[in-house]
């Protein structure tokens, strides 16, 4: 029996600077709207590293260097696909900030993040981006529904 499964691969990148700021996107997509980090779908035959650099460029105008894989997020879609988000972070970037149709891009102070209308469960995702001991955000399906697990 085949062990292959349907998977959707995406990425997301936390870009931060040395002054305590992070770059956020106000997603205009009605599907999972709100403040989040830039990112998008990984294309067929594309290295994960190249995909995050491309998505950040498309959505922010910035060119990032040395994105570091720092975690994952997963859930099962209603079409029974495994939806995977690869989390990256970097403080190396250059270029001019330009927003895309995906949503406005702007710098905020990290300590003020919770004052913004975050995308659903983004605060828990951020815990993974910023943790040295946890690297997985997982929506676990239980008899009572779905719960967030951080591993
Ligand atoms: N649609 C959706 N996206 C999510 C969820 N959780 C989560 O981290 N994401 C992230 C993964 C990606 O960074 C981004 C995918 O957004 P999208 O589906 O609008 O894809 P996109 O248009 O940005 O992708 P692309 O066409 O530019 O390649 O959102 C979620 O529950 N639903």
Automatic annotation (TrEMBL):
Reactions mediated catalytically: 8-oxo-dGTP + H2O = 8-oxo-dGMP + diphosphate + H(+)
Protein name (database record): 8-oxo-dGTP diphosphatase
UniProt EC number: 3.6.1.55
Cofactor(s) the record lists: Mg(2+)
Highest taxon of source: Bacteria
Broad EC category: hydrolase
GO MF term set: 8-oxo-7,8-dihydrodeoxyguanosine triphosphate pyrophosphatase activity; 8-oxo-7,8-dihydroguanosine triphosphate pyrophosphatase activity; 8-oxo-dGDP phosphatase activity; 8-oxo-GDP phosphatase activity; metal ion binding
Family assignment from sequence similarity: Belongs to the Nudix hydrolase family.
Keywords per UniProt: DNA damage, DNA repair, DNA replication, Hydrolase, Magnesium, Metal-binding, Mutator protein
InterPro entries documented for this protein: MutT-like, NUDIX_hydrolase-like_dom_sf, NUDIX_hydrolase_CS, NUDIX_hydrolase_dom
Residue ranges constituting the Nudix hydrolase domain according to the UniProt record: 6-132
GO biological process, one term: DNA replication
């Amino acid at each position: 029996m085949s062990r292959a499964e349907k998977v959707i691969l995406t990425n997301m990148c936390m870009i931060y600077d040395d002054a305590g700021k992070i770059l956020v996107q106000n997603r205009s997509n009605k599907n999972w709207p709100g403040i989040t980090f830039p990112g998008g779908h990984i294309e067929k035959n594309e290295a994960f590293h190249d995909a995050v650099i491309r998505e950040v460029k498309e959505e922010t105008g910035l060119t990032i260097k040395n994105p570091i894989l720092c975690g994952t997020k997963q859930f099962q879609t209603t079409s029974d696909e495994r939806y995977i988000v690869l989390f990256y972070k970097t403080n190396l970037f250059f270029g001019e900030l330009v927003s895309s149709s995906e949503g406005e891009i702007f710098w905020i102070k990290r300590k003020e993040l919770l004052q913004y209308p975050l995308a659903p469960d983004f605060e828990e995702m951020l815990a993974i981006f910023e943790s040295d001991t946890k690297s997985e955000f997982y929506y676990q399906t239980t008899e009572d529904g779905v719960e967030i697990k951080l591993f």
